[in-house]
Amino acid sequence: MKITTPRIVQSRSRWVYLWVLVPIVLGAALLVGWERYLPPVEPVVDEVTPLNRRLKDKDKQIAVLEAERGQLREQIAALERAAQIDHEAMRQVREELRQSQTSHQEMANELALLRGIVETSVKSEGLYIQGFRLSKGAEPQVYRFNFTVSQALKSAGAAVGWMQLALEGQQDGEASVLALKEITKEKEEKLKMRFRHFQDVDGLIQVPEGFNPERVIVEINPTNNKLPQIKKTFDWLVAE
């Protein structure tokens, strides 16, 4: 009887698995080793969202500043209007004050005139020139004159006669006297006088070019014999 030794038969599929598994293991080992030498990968940071927030915040701040600037502009406009109103109110107050002072001065002059008439009536008879005044006219070289001529209350009847004005000054460096007809548009030689107690006289003087006035001469010539002729000179002082 022949005895046969049994053989161990290995399956070919085992070798196939080994050949497949070994490359996988080696590849994994290489991958792990390679990752050790690679720089660490930083996580992706979202930079867009914070910038958008900052832009929105800036937009809000700009809107607030625009609103504040608008309010400041309105306040400035209101202050300017108030300043204009205050300026206009101040101008009106000053004008009223000036008119009040002018009226007061006119009343004071009239009172002084009446007192002068009463006082002169006690002292003596005759004619008197009071309150002579010069002021600027509406046109260049034109001036308004005002004065009052009166007689003492003792004098009987009306004062009748003529009044003449003359202007003394310098013309081209030489002394000169201009008659009434040379300094008025009407070219009148004299002014008519007729009153019982007093007469207010006013008119316009037109100073010729190149003439430098220094004095005004007022002369009154009554036609009745009871009143003497009078002549008075006033310095050229123009009221502001």
TrEMBL record:
Species the sequence originates in: Sedimenticola selenatireducens
Coiled coil: 55-110
Protein name listed in UniProt: Uncharacterized protein
InterPro entries for the chain: DUF6776 (IPR046703)
Protein keywords: Coiled coil, Membrane, Transmembrane, Transmembrane helix
Protein origin, superkingdom: Bacteria
Transmembrane segments: 15-34
